Amino acid sequence: MAGENQKYQLHIFFFPFLAQGHMIPTIDMAKIFASRGIRATIIATPFNLPLISRSIQESVALGLPINLVPIKFSCQELGLPEGCENADAISSPSLFHIFFKATTMLQEPLEQLLQEHHPDCLVAGSFFPWATDSAAKFGIPRIVFRGTGFFPLCVIESISRHQPYKDVLSDSDPFVIPNLPGIEIEMTRMLLPTYIITDDDTLFTRLFKAAEESEVKSFGVVVNSFYELEGIYADHYKKALGRKAWHIGPVSLCNRENKEKSYRGKQASMDAQDCLKWLDSKKPHSVLYICFGSRSDFTENQLREIAMGLEASGQNFIWVVRESKKDKEEEGDRDRDRDQDQGWLPEGFEKRMEGKGLIIRGWAPQVLILDHESTGGFVTHCGWNSTLEGVSAGVPMVTWPVSAEQFYNEKLITEVLRIGVAVGVKKWVPLVGDHIEKEAIVKAVKEITEGDEAEEIRNRAKKLARMAREAVEEGGSSHSDLNSLIEELADLSK
Asked: Could you tell me if 320 and 241 lie in one domain?
């Protein structure tokens, strides 16, 4: 693929929002464009530079035209801790508003870079709404990266425009999402972010409104998805809603070798080879993988409930738990009995689960784990990256949404695609999530691992995985859409 379309000699800037869930797919996008011989430059703050550099090192070693450009981020000027240049590093919810406000200070240094390099296009995260105007100052087209799929984009558009939640009497009463193609989808107010259902003039309501206006003025939207997954929603988004968009995913599939997969994101808390060796010892489809993304921060009571549910399910498992401050303090003493150090684990849990369960505290090589033949199920928070990585691996899912657009993704997984089952979350609770009892966990796990219905779910998931891989190959739907985007940008640059 290297060198394809090289005659265009395009130069594209990639400017991801400062969070792992945005940076990882943006890095993959940059790799994909670079594989076509297009110069890809990723803009990163000093703290994030080493993380991104590690993720692209294999591509650079292969000679792909991809590089990094630093951008100054004066986070301390607004009261953020030193090095707080990534949303995943925010230690307190009260700092989120400061962090988002601080990102607006990136506008001036970005414009300096645009003036200096004058790329042919700027692909910038949706939470930089001002980037459209910044690019326009220099006659550069701005493409928005939303970080989610067409289905949630259509749902968000419909809810924002029609406000169907105002027609119900209580927060628990269901309402149908209007003007949506395909099957009828119901939601409740409890599953919606507070910044959507209130009229308060907050930072986040202003941010989302500005992002929408910026998107309309931009050159278009690039989406990490593929047509076979959500084609009717892609058509609706483009035609009925009048948005210009290209689907070029799943972008994670550009990472073909184990080393590339293990280098995505942060340094894994467990050696990838050790993880693969553990998986190699298990039977096909016998391991349950549990991970709730880089932002979910469950209470100790909820973590204990998950532990009891996993033990009661009888499944082999790999469970990724966000590293707490207590974990970090104990990094130098790995031989201590963690059962007594951490109240969220039932007494003796890790000893009883020895050989059957693996707990990874911190960051895990998720794509490597999902792609392994021993992995047979995925308990997920339904973030779009995790959703698409689960789809690409052909793994049935237990959906456990926490916040953001995750409840819309759950509907896609369980009702539209029918490749997973819901654990039973009833309300949107930022970061900590709604509380789920162990019985509900066991029930959901059994529904994707036992019986005829579980087999049907697995077959549908495997079929979608084959389609995902075909989509990114030459002649596939995403490969073709990427070609169209490249051709449009080439015409503009003449």
From this structure: no
